């Protein structure tokens, strides 16, 4: 498939390289049909229940709902909730995967959070996919949702002052149903373990993990949408982790997560230009604790291969050092736009 230069060399090339013709549409529709038929046979119902509400759980027409799966994120959640409230999220729908660090108690204390639990774990719920699809169904189709992981902070042009509702209106006007926003790994240039005294809950994570790779990414078009790999994890640990995501999406009767939250169905909706970025925080001061927990918990893809690989390198070198000649300091979203990581959102 076609390889695309990323970050973009120009805004014009970014739009052109994300456009697709009738053959691409037919190919994506056929792939959607094939995968959806398989997935509908595979989908299983899992018992989940809401801990807060005794009656029906609903979103009002003007609500912006956010759905996420959490486990042991009590340190990061205060900044995450504050960030998305600033964007305009009015209801958080959280499936707590048996946290034991105070996460559930923190969430239950928030008036704008619905906390759900399940009798099964993350792996059995197909890495949380079944939970998300059930929650989409409970809260209702034919509306926009944010769907994120608990270490992802969505940003876009002028996010500090532009509400997510304004972004949704812009996408509606353009006839788009998803916002493409790849993950961008941020990391400190000092060993995060040496920052143990830093209180995560008192800071935004980009005040701690404040550097990123400005090059070394591969963007390519596939029959299921645009794929992005590379960055600091690929450079340092040799991982091929998929970085493209669609954290803001219109969920209707055609919606399905398929085999991965990185490429939801229908696939023909996964070719839009990148207008957002998910600032991704895997490398914070508690990284050793989080990696060890992920390995011991045995809930992640392919026997925790990514976490095992990262921990092996860290143990061999003695500490986490992600700095390279590609490393630059994160300043703001305008910097990312100038570098070509995303396009502006024209709200005029």
Summarize the SSE layout with pairings.
Blueprint: E1 3-4, H1 11-18, H2 22-42, E2 48-50, E3 65-70, H3 77-87, E4 91-96, H4 103-108, E5 113-118, H5 129-139, E6 143-149, E7 152-155, H6 164-173, E8 178-179, E9 183-185, E10 211-213, E11 217-222, E12 225-230, H7 231-237, E13 248-251, E14 277-280, H8 287-297, H9 301-317, E15 327-329, H10 333-339
Parallel strand pairs: 3-4, 3-6, 4-5, 9-14
Antiparallel strand pairs: 1-11, 2-5, 6-13, 7-14, 8-13, 10-15, 11-12
Helix pairs in contact: 8-9
Describe this structure in words.
With 348 residues, the chain is an alpha/beta fold. Helices cover 31% and strands 19% of the residues. It has ten helices and 15 strands. The protein has helices at 11-18, 22-42, 77-87, 103-108, 129-139, 164-173, 231-237, 287-297, 301-317, 333-339; strands at 3-4, 48-50, 65-70, 91-96, 113-118, 143-149, 152-155, 178-179, 183-185, 211-213, 217-222, 225-230, 248-251, 277-280, 327-329. The strands form four sheets. A seven-stranded mixed β-sheet has the order 2-5-4-3-6-13-8. Helix 4 (103-108) links the parallel strand 4 (91-96) and strand 5. Helix 8 runs antiparallel to helix 9 (301-317). 41% of the residues are buried.
- Please provide the ordered H/E string of secondary-structure elements: EHHEEHEHEHEEHEEEEEHEEHHEH
Radius of gyration: 19 Å
Mean pLDDT across residues: 88
Major β-sheet, in short?
7 strands, mixed
Instruction: Please report the distance between the alpha carbons of the first and last residues.
Output: 35 Å
Q: What's the total count of β strands?
A: 15
Q: Helical proportion?
A: 25-40%
Structural class: alpha/beta
Strand order of the largest sheet: 2-5-4-3-6-13-8
Number of helices: 10
Quaternary organisation: single chain
Low-confidence stretches: none
Beta-strand content bin: 15-25%
The rough form would be described as globular
């Amino acid at each position: 498939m076609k390889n695309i230069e990323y970050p973009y060399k120009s805004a014009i090339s970014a739009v052109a390289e994300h456009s697709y013709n009738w053959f691409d549409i037919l190919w994506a529709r056929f792939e959607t049909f094939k995968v959806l038929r398989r997935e509908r046979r595979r989908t299983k119902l899992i018992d989940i229940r809401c801990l807060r509400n005794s009656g029906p759980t609903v979103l009002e027409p003007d609500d912006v709902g956010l759905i996420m799966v959490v486990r042991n994120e009590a340190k990061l959640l205060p900044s995450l909730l504050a960030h998305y409230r600033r964007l305009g999220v009015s209801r958080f729908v959280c499936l707590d995967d048996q946290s034991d660090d105070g996460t559930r108690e923190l969430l239950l204390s928030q008036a704008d959070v619905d906390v759900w639990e399940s009798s099964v774990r993350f792996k059995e719920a197909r890495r949380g996919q079944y939970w998300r699809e059930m929650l989409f169904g409970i809260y209702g189709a034919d509306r926009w949702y944010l769907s994120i992981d608990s270490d992802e902070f969505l940003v876009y042009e002028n996010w500090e002052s532009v509400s997510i509702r304004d972004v949704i209106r812009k996408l509606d006007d353009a006839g788009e149903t998803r916002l493409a926003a790849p993950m961008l790994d941020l990391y400190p240039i000092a060993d995060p373990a040496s920052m143990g005294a830093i209180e995560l809950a008192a800071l935004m994570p980009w005040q701690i993990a404040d550097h990123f790779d400005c090059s070394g990414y591969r963007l390519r078009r596939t029959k299921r949408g645009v794929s992005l790999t590379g960055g600091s994890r690929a450079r340092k640990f040799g991982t091929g982790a998929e970085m493209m995501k669609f954290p803001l999406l219109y969920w209707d009767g055609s919606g399905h997560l398929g085999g991965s939250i990185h490429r939801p169905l229908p696939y023909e909706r996964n070719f839009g230009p990148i207008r957002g970025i998910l600032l991704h925080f895997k490398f914070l001061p508690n990284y050793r604790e989080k990696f060890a927990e992920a390995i011991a918990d045995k809930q992640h893809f392919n026997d925790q291969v990514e976490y095992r690989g990262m921990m092996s390198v860290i143990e061999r070198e003695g500490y986490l050092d992600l700095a390279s000649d590609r490393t630059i300091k994160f300043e703001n979203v305008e910097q990312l736009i100038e570098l070509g990581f995303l396009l502006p959102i024209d709200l005029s």
